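agent: user wants the full assembly modeled, not chains individually. Plan: 1) parse entity lines 2) check alphabet per entity 3) run joint structure prediction 4) return tokens. Steps 1-2 passed, two entities, 609 residues total. Proceeding.
--- entities ---
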Amino acid sequence: MNTNTLAAPLFVITKGCFAYRTDNVLQDIDLSLAPGRFYGLIGPNGSGKSTLLDLLTATRSLQGGQIAFQGRPLANYAKKELAVKIALVPQQFAMGFDFTVAELVLMGRYPHIPRFSNPTVRDLRLVDEAMAVMQIDGLRHRLISDLSGGEKQRVVVARALAQDTEVLVLDEATANLDIHHTIEIMHVIRKLVRDQGRTVIAAIHDLNLAAAFCDQVIVLKEGSIFTAGPVAEVLTSHLIAEVFQVEAEVQAATPDHPPQIHFTLN
Amino acid sequence: MSPKPPLILIALALFLAMAIILATGMGFLVITPGEVIRVLWAKACGAGLVADLNPTFPFVIMEVRLPRILAAAIVGGGLAVAGAVFQAILLNPLADPYTLGVSSGAAFGASLALVLGISGITVPIFVSVPLFSFLGAMATLGAVFALAAPDGRLSSNTLILAGVIVAAILSAGIGFIKYLADEQVGVIIFWLMGSLVGKTWHDVALTAGFVFPGLLVMLYFARDLNIMSLGGRMADTLGVDSRRVKKILLLCASLITAICVSISGIIGFVGLIVPHLLRMVLGPDNRLLIPACFFGGAILLLTADTITRAWLPTELPIGVLTSLIGGPFFCYIFRKKQLGQRA
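--- prediction returned ---
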């Protein structure tokens, strides 16, 4: 499935199954993810995208099959070990209490800071950098509850950037943002992949966004992997019709432009 | 997260120490703070500095007032930290130490002990009431956990609902016991309203034995508790085993609540208002909030107990007093905050 044979795979899922009580959410998932790539995870609502991301971040455990991360079963990692390697940006974000923006972004550093120690200069620098990249420096001392939805989401992305992990998992992280901030964040993340060789796995609803920024797409349908591969090969009008039941015309990619999808709206 | 927190804690600790000394001097027999300190110093060093003082002072201070005062401080501090932890775990600033029904369990146990005492079963009341109420509280916690267990994440809704159900059943049980107690029902009612009358060094040691170790565990997990306010899924990806931390801290807070209730009866409002107010002032960082709550709760309950002991012509149940002082004050702060936000 994966075209990258040079580097050892980052994640390998074999025969992965997961069910909530008795409803099968994911079945027979076989997937191998290479490091240094931007993966887009697409599929209709309820196709199991979030669950698959939960399995990759080890917030849920497989009920059948295996999942290995860097050659070791994911279940054998301590939570602390994973927290310095994998960060999550969720779509929905509720804060129980009113921390300030800076305090929240600093929480991304907690896995790196011993329990009773103060943040080091490096920790604080990474926090500042993350806030600068997300353009929220000016909000530093504001309370989370006073922010708009878009500002909140940028804070959450900054927190994940401050966590400084080799893997970044985004669960529809830009779904609540306006187009300007969406593109801004996607550029930042694209840069992390290109310049620093980090791996991003992002569940994305907007197919054009996936087409524009991802290297590879993984298509989920009804809890199984429908197909996976490079964007230009996978995203066809045939696939969109079959998976999303929507008619669309796909304008082929050129060296300068990613493929573009035009939906037939009636 | 800023360098000033320890200063606030030191100030609160000094304030508590002052309150303890002042309170010890107050009462039917007035003793000046200087004399209180001299007696305490003499006791601590075994020196004879007290020869010129009224010979009853050492007895009044050491055997009558200090145990009750320390019990009040520790119970108040214990309830406040338990409240802070319940609020943090349940992500609900209106939770208190009694949210999971622990108080109802304790009250049921105590009522049972009292009614058994009335009906002539000869267990000394001062042993049976704390013991029964503690067991009642623990059994309640067990029931709540068992009810909530199928929810893998122990979400706050599940826990609160389980607590409400168990508490409702227990209240009915308490009602039945009151009915059985007939004319003696006053004893139960007085206990339910809370009191620190006649507390001994034994009670002080018992509460301290639960509250201080519990407090240490809470401080150990305080940072994890901060992260858990992001929700279980986020906390897990930040390296916190949120389910485990939740269980440990709920157990800790409930043990503290159970011992406090079994020693003093049900004292409302301290566990709600102290963490709530301090969070408004100091922010939500539990590493600062939890120790601050201990001092704040201790000062509040000690003040309330001193008012009912030394100022009022007759002893008012302390639970009534804390709510009478705390309620309006809370309204004032709440209103001020609302107005401030609008401006």
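agent: reporting back. The interface with chain A takes residues 1, 88, 91-93, 220, 223, 226-234, 236-241, 279, 283-285 of chain B (CB under 8 Å). Residues 154 and 236 of chain B are 14 Å apart (CA to CA).
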